[in-house]
Specification:
single chain, Dimethylsulfoxide Reductase, domain 2, 334 residues, 40% helix, five-stranded parallel β-sheet, 15 helices, three-stranded parallel β-sheet, alpha/beta, globular, Rossmann fold
């Protein structure tokens, strides 16, 4: 998130896209609802489903699945054509405006309405005017934007809209992704990604390699080659270049888009370890299943969606022979 949750009362308008906020992030959802209902703040919602927040929206854009980029560009087109964009902000703080202007040219309300399945193109114009004239306006999105092949470009389109309107780097504005799980932010911050060290420092850097060699004192040489993503790992398993898989708190048989592809990969592997709290569909293909703690059995910290570190206390006694996830990994490593 570029802005903190305490800034929600400072926003004059909200744009929620690809997020069922009141269900998946109820604290944030209730804060937005309070501002809209009690303080008459403006709200625009874009989502394939008529979510709870749509009831309180000034404009609800019920778009076809996978058309986030089109609607974002369409809203930007309205601001551009009607001269509602922040010219001074773009002049002093942005680059590439001319290229964006050319790209947005074709995203007329009529063109976007046809792509998105919106019957009335004037609703796009109305939404665009609301978002462009409210200062500051905060944009909130979730996995309804990111979980597509075009997810990266969807996020870029969110950033482009907010820069066009001068809402980045200002209190009560910003581009604010709402994380899918309670500690996915903390895991990413700590480097649990295939291509970065902690604090998002790229693996493909000799300078970073030397820095972490001095810090960690490993007994082996650190690589400057990024690791494989989940999809790449499964493809490599089928090809035969990956022989074993350690699946930790993930159920790709159910969560990946092509179940047959995942199962084929798991069956090709020489060795599969699954570490989880239940016997998942993926665990059925494992040679070894390691029982971790459920969240109510754990103690420690998580980093929430605004990078606030929160303490978690154990609520129930761990069941059976389950162990802390960090303890299992340390035992294997040592």
């Amino acid at each position: 998130m570029t802005n903190s949750l305490r800034e929600i009362p400072q926003s004059d308008a909200f744009f929620v896209i690809g997020s069922n906020t009141t269900e998946n992030h109820p604290v944030i959802g209730s804060m937005i609802k309070r501002e809209v209902i009690n303080n008459r703040k403006k709200l625009v919602v874009a989502d394939p489903r008529r979510i709870d927040l749509a009831k309180y929206a000034d404009v609800f854009l019920q778009i076809n699945p996978g058309t986030n980029i089109a609607i974002l560009n369409g809203l930007a087109h309205v601001a551009l054509k009607e001269g509602l964009y922040d010219k001074e902000y773009i002049k002093t703080r942005c680059e590439g405006f001319e290229e964006l202007e050319k790209t947005l040219e074709k995203y007329t309300p009529e063109y976007v309405a046809e792509i998105c399945g919106i019957d009335d193109p004037s609703k796009i114009v109305e939404a665009g005017r609301i978002l462009a004239t409210a200062k500051p306006m905060a944009l909130y999105y979730c996995m309804g934007v990111t979980q597509f092949k075009s997810g990266v470009n969807g996020v870029k389109a969110c950033a482009n809209l907010q820069m066009l309107l001068g809402n980045l780097g200002v209190a009560g504005g910003g581009v604010n992704p709402l994380r899918g799980q309670n500690n996915v932010q903390g895991a990413c911050d700590m480097g649990a990604l295939n291509a970065v060290y902690p604090a998002y420092q790229p693996v493909a850097s000799e300078e970073n390699k030397e820095k972490f060699k001095k810090a960690w004192l490993p007994s082996f040489d650190l690589s400057v080659k990024p690791g494989l993503t989940i999809v790449e790992s499964l493809n490599a398993a089928i090809e035969g270049s990956v022989k074993a898989l350690y699946v930790f708190g993930e159920n790709p048989v159910m969560s990946d888009p092509n179940q047959h592809h995942v199962i084929e990969a798991l069956e090709k592997l020489d060795f599969v370890v699954v570490q989880d709290i239940v016997m998942t569909e993926t665990a059925e293909y494992a040679d070894v299943v390691l029982p971790g703690y459920a969240f109510l059995e754990k103690e420690g910290t998580v980093s929430n969606t605004e990078r606030r570190v929160q303490m978690m206390h154990r609520v129930v006694k761990p069941a059976g022979e389950s162990r802390d996830d960090w303890w299992i990994i340390m035992e294997i490593a040592n």
